[in-house]
């Protein structure tokens, strides 16, 4: 690990005055980064992937940015709330089970105790070419150098939202629950506070894989707001991975259903492990609208979800695994007992 200076952000006013941008903001990275749980940042610093000269600890803001508040309007979660605390919250488990499940199935118990929600949605890809600096060809780490994964090891790489410059998959779980439930991101920075749909936070790689989010320089995530809705309680997160503990998704699905008997009033579907960003499967949602939900209609929706999938050899299995994962999630959500 390279030498760096360490400071604590004194208060939230300092954030509004402007914290230096992170490596995932819209402009070129600067050598200052924020520290919350540290479960991604310190890991990548040790690997020499990230090289900040200055680390700002924002845990001093935890008293104001760790809220877990559920009411008739929905759920509000502070960016510094820890994954384990949210997963264990009784109201979250009852009213928004897909949120609790997505967090409980992530990482290990020790990491969930440390990791913050804001840091979790901004975690970087697990692509081995990104995380190993001995490989020069990684457009996400070294813009313009190429993508070694295109013709290399890509078994866990994306099949949706890819480009000729990058096929790295987004690794998180919680983000799929957020995008399925139409969450809003609360952001603070030097230009004041703003709110955007969570679906607008991440950028597909296109020709700039190194630019991963729409955060402006100096901005940080302050929290998430998830609106209440008739689909929230009937929601499910299914994750398929190589092992049952501490492994990233080969495919996952977050679903939330509003049903009239067996008929779908509205379906909300997000896919993980198969895309470059948290992926809202709008074609699958449209395929289910007004249909009786059974195995056949679920399979049609899954076909629609992966109609544009593009594979690269070792990940040829992913569209089929993704379809089966989505069908399972839909049928399990339908069978849920709702009090």
TrEMBL record:
GO terms for molecular function: FAD binding; oxidoreductase activity. Gene3D superfamilies: 3.30.465.10, CO dehydrogenase flavoprotein, C-terminal domain (3.30.390.50), Uridine Diphospho-n-acetylenolpyruvylglucosamine Reductase, domain 2 (3.30.43.10). Keywords: FAD, Flavoprotein. InterPro entries: CO_DH_flav_C, CO_DH_flav_C_dom_sf, Diverse_Substr_Oxidored, FAD-bd_PCMH, FAD-bd_PCMH-like_sf, FAD-bd_PCMH_sub1, FAD-bd_PCMH_sub2, Mopterin_DH_FAD-bd. SUPFAM superfamilies: CO dehydrogenase flavoprotein C-terminal domain-like, FAD-binding/transporter-associated domain-like. It comes from the Bacteria. Residues 1-231 form the FAD-binding PCMH-type domain. It holds the Pfam family FAD_binding_5. This is Xanthine dehydrogenase family protein subunit M. It comes from Dankookia rubra. The lineage of its organism: Bacteria, Pseudomonadati, Pseudomonadota, Alphaproteobacteria, Acetobacterales.
